[in-house]
Every structure is written in C-alpha cells, then in structure tokens.
Specification:
This protein has 190 residues and is α/β, with parallel strands linked by helices. Helix content is 37%, strand content 19%. The chain has a single domain, classed as 3-Layer(aba) Sandwich (Rossmann fold). Strand 4, helix 6 and strand 5 form a beta-alpha-beta unit. Helix 1 crosses helix 7. The chain starts with a strand and ends with a helix. Bound molecules: flavin mononucleotide. Flavin mononucleotide binds next to helix 1 and strand 4.
C-alpha cells in the first residue's frame, strides 16, 4: 500500500503542509509507504487541450507532470492538500489537476492501459481557509469529489480546516486528528 501526498500550497511548512504530514503519518502508522510531492517545487504548465493525449495517453507538454503521472499510477491512494485562494484551489493545484486529462481518452474514459491502476484508487482531500466558515472551501471539495466520482475512483472524504497565519493549524488538535484519520482511512479502506 502506497500513499502519495500532493501539497498544493506554495507556503512550505504552512497549514496545508502540516495537515498533509499528519495524514501521511496516519497512513504510515497503518502500514502504508508514503511519499509527498510539493507542487510549487515542480514545473507544471496548464493543460493546452491539444487533445494529443486522447489517442496516446501521453501528455505533449515536456515538464515535470509526466513523472507525477507515474507516481499517481503507482500509488494506491492520493491525498491532496490545498489552501483556499480566492474561493478556489491554488494555481499550482489547478494546473496539476487539469493535467489529469492525459489519463483519459476523447470520451473521458480511462485509457485502457491506466484503468487497472486507477480503478478504485483512494482519493482524499485536505483544505485550509482563512475564513472561520470552512465551507468556503466547498468549491475545492466539489472539484476533487466530482472528479473521483465521475471517474470511478474511491472518494475517502475531505478534512476542512480554518487557519490564517503560517503554522497556525499546529494548535488545532481536532483538525490534526481528522487529517491523521484520513491518512489511516486511505491506507485501510476497501
Ligand atoms: C492569494 C491568497 C488568497 C486567499 N484567498 C482566501 C479566500 O478566498 N478565502 C479564505 O478563507 N482564505 C483565503 N486566503 C487565506 C489562506 O487560505 C490561509 O491563509 C491558509 O491558511 C493558507 O494555507 P497554507 O498555510 O497552507 O498556505 C488566501 C490567501 C492568499 C495568499
């Protein structure tokens, strides 16, 4: 069992990062191998909708995303962590998510080669927003949950937390415990 953590905040060591680390610790304690990718340290361009991947399953853009595609394929679970920027996900996370396009054919079905590796993969999400009302992050949850459901992945849930200053979430034991449990669930469900 392998869990891939995808960190979508450019603030390394910030709130999303802290909660993702808790989730990966939960997964590790449940027996999983874990790996974290920090998106802002990677070069990931936006999808060009050039449709070349529709036939080949290979993205035409030469940047760091193809190596991340391989890591996604090789993981049993992927947990994403992202702060709210202007009522939406960060630019880094959106560029990453749009590049999932390469996994699909022209009818948005998994490419045959990828389907056995993607089917039933566990997908989870952590969000952090400055707003005390965590539902501010609903649009991010909607994107990931709908993507998972639309493509027959296994949605394991979202942890939604509120914090503003860098590292502030470290004082929120409830959010840290929820993130830890999400990681355990990623390692054990289904
Ligand atoms: C560019 C930018 C836009 C933001 N927009 C929102 C927003 O729309 N709603 C909100 O609740 N918080 C917003 N925030 C606050 C962050 O979500 C908050 O500080 C969060 O804790 C950052 O998480 P991080 O430490 O993982 O980067 C914004 C922060 C930045 C830098």
């Amino acid at each position: 069992m392998k869990i891939l953590g995808v960190m979508g905040s450019p603030r390394i060591g910030g709130n999303s990062d802290i909660l993702l680390e808790r989730a990966l610790a939960g997964g590790k304690d449940a027996g999983a191998e874990t790996e974290k990718i920090v998106l802002c340290r990677k070069k990931i361009s936006g999808c060009l909708n050039c449709e070349r991947c529709n036939a080949t399953g290979v993205c035409a853009i030469k940047d760091d995303m193809p190596e991340i595609h391989e890591k996604i394929l090789g993981a049993d679970a992927v947990i994403h962590s992202c702060p709210v920027y202007f009522w939406a996900m960060t630019a880094q996370m959106k560029a990453y998510l749009d590049r999932w396009c390469a996994f699909f054919d022209a009818e948005w079905r998994w490419h045959e080669a990828y389907y056995p590796k993607m089917k039933g993969k566990h997908i989870g999400l952590i969000t952090v927003c400055g707003d005390p009302n965590v539902s501010t992050a609903d649009p991010i949850v909607h994107s990931f949950k709908t993507t998972a459901e639309f493509t027959n992945l296994c949605w394991i849930g979202a942890v939604m937390a509120s914090a503003t200053a860098k590292g502030e979430i470290a004082g929120n034991n409830k959010a840290k415990q929820e993130a830890y449990e999400l990681g355990r669930k990623a390692a054990t469900q289904g």
